[in-house]
Amino acid sequence: MTTEKPKRRSQAWFGGQDRDAFVHRSWTQKMGHPADEFDGRPVIGICNTWSELTPCNSHFRELAEFVKRGVLEAGGFPLEFPVMSLGETQLRPTAMLFRNLASMDVEESIRGNPIDGVLLLMGCDKTTPALMMGAASCNLPTIGVSGGPMLNGKFRGKDIGSGTGVWMMSEMVRAGQMTQAEFTDAEACMNRSAGTCMTMGTASTMASMVESLGMSLPGNAAIPAPDTRRNRLAQLSGRRIVEMVKEELTMDKIMTREAFENAIRVNAAIGGSTNAVVHLLAIAGRMGIELKLEDWDRLGSEMPCLVNVQPSGHYLMEDFYYAGGVPAVMREISSMLHLNALTANGRSLGQNIEDAPCYNREVIKTVEDPFKPHAGIAILKGNLAPDGAVIKPSAATPALLKHRGRAVVFEDIEDFRARIDDPALDIDENCVMVLKNCGPKGYPGMAEVGNMPLPKKVLEKGVTDMVRISDARMSGTAYGTVVLHTSPEAAAGGPLALVKSGDMIMLDVGERSLHLEVSDEELARRRAAWTPPPMPDRGYAKLYVEHVQQAHLGADLDFLVGSSGAPVPRESH
Ligand code: FES
Ligand code: MG
After folding, report:
1. Which pLDDT does position 301 carry in this prediction?
2. Would you list the DSSP string of 299-333?
3. Which keywords belong to this entry (predicted)?
4. What is the Cα–Cα distance from 442 to 532, expressed in whole angstroms?
5. Ligand with an atom nearest the CA of residue 58
6. Distance from the CA of 207 to the center of ligand 2, in angstroms?
7. Which of 52, 89, 473 is the best mutation target for the ligand 1 pocket, counting ligand atoms within 8 Å of the beta carbon and taking the most?
8. Phi and psi of 433, rounded to 5°?
9. Which residues are in the CB-under-5-Å shell of ion ligand 2?
10. Ligand nearest to the CA of 162
């Protein structure tokens, strides 16, 4: 009998001849694994977010089969396991409330089990950061496979983008430019295949972040879900993760500070979602990398937006894939990237993209002739947002990027819904709409309600945008001059809580400032009279509000920041 320390953590379960090894092997054999499979080959955990409550990930059982093929081909031992899945469209009060919970599920499932390497199947918005965060805290060799976007929506002979089209058409109905019947017709036309939203919403943005971090094979982000090249990429990823285990290519070797800087730049170039800000901050936090809100402005705001895809542009993810996808974008901005960054295929980012072709310059523009010269995410500061707020200038109306207006305040989302279409509401297009109590603690979970629909009476004038400010997030598929993630949030006693209707607010994105024109003395008086809103008193929501960090830190739970690695826990019997 050898007393040598087992080479792989799975051998702490499956190796040896004692009572415990009997139990671990015997119970596994009932799934059809002959005795020789326990010989120390890499055990690959396939972390699956399949769920019919997550329509965007409902094709993941098939996808997992291709992964397994690849793992077996490379001599690995695939074991698929489910984790909590977060369906953006169904889950209330917001899928974001459960991102951190799902990440705990992922982390503990990996650490507590005989797993040597991990393949993450991620799709719908929050499933990607949740899995990346959980896996990062374990730091095993890990590779990501995204579910892929849907095929373009088709409505009455035209392309229609998921999410973005909903926001647009619902405003058209309210403005009297579209009938209810037409609106209902569009329901069956928008989401017509498996996959995630096919705009550059949060799902495609985060898939692009995974790819630009180097955590997937090149090309992973944009292949449409029904395109069989997606299945082949899954199979190749299955093969590759086995090799990564043999090479001991752990996440910390790929997800370095340079990798995060690359991702931030790619986010600007693709016109990515503001949600990437909170998610990358949280993932970096799990890696022990000090990423700051200011890094987004410093690294991204000089960047051009090259990708003409909704919501910033015109086309959809299917077009983006045919045009060359993320590798083509990264090749175009390669002078602004850390090309030595190591990626999951064992090659450097620079090697991966050096020959990446672009097939359509309408969809992926050049740095010399960009789609929008200044993109990225701007970080605003001021007495209304001492710890920062974010805005995506590429999705805003240029004329509103510097705007002074009278605040019209809504105390929470119910207050907003009750009054927004009231003809007596004192509001016009020059006002600034302010929404409170929609941040991490306030909603709770920081819902995507920041892109407040405009008042009907303003829409009827043909106005399509107004300045809006909140502590909420907005859907990655949304657009407008929308200031988000105001920190500290209202429910935590941030200055946003003190704004009153009639106050003047000055937004100046060029100066990166957000100023409430109320004296410090008056704000102190208002603060003395302020009382916090009631908080949940049991269950996960209670744990969440007691421990969630503010948006500028990534909205992770304070005790989850950092990593515990994946040491083998003590035996269970
Ligand atoms: Fe699932 Fe958009 S709702 S990806
Ligand atoms: Mg969303």
Report:
1. 83
2. HHTTPPB-B-BTTTSSB-HHHHHHHTHHHHHHHHT
3. Iron, Iron-sulfur, Lyase, Metal-binding
4. 9
5. 1
6. 14
7. 89
8. -80, 130
9. 88, 125, 448, 475
10. 1
Number of domains in the chain: 3
Q: Where are the beta strands (DSSP E) in 123-196?
A: 142-146, 153-155, 158-160
Q: Which atom of ligand 1 is nearest to the CA of 89?
A: 3
Mean pLDDT in order along the chain per 10 residues (573 residues): 68 96 97 96 98 98 98 98 97 98 98 98 98 98 98 95 92 92 95 97 98 98 98 98 98 98 97 96 97 94 93 95 98 98 98 98 98 91 98 92 98 97 96 98 97 94 96 92 98 98 97 97 97 97 98 98 96 92
Instruction: Look up the CATH number of the domain holding residue 395.
Output: 3.50.30.80
The minimum-distance atom of ligand 1 relative to the CA of 476 is: 2
Owning domain of residue 161:
154-190
Q: Which of 49, 53, 56 to mutate to test the pocket of ligand 1 (most atoms within 8 A of CB)?
A: 56
As for the ipTM of the complex, it is 0.93
Q: Does the residue 497 lie in any domain?
A: yes
Which residue CA neighbors atom 1 of ligand 1 most closely?
A: 124
Q: Note whether 246 and 332 are same-domain residues.
A: yes
Residues 184 and 289 in one domain: no
Same domain for 73 and 104: yes
Please work out whether the CB of residue 56 comes within 6 Å of at least one atom of ligand 1: yes
At residue 469, φ and ψ (nearest 5 deg) are -135, 135
Are 60 and 114 within one domain? yes
| Domain limit, last residue, from 295, 318, 353 | 353
Q: What are phi and psi of 302, to 5 degrees?
A: -85, -5
Take residue 414 and report the two structure tokens written for it. 């119910």
Indicate if 404 and 262 belong to the same structural domain.
Answer: no
| Shared domain check, 205 and 184 | no
Q: Is the CB of 196 under 6 A from ligand 1?
A: yes
pLDDT for 2 equals 46
C-alpha dihedral over 417, 418, 421, 422, to 10 degrees? -160
User: Are 158 and 70 found together in one domain?
Assistant: no
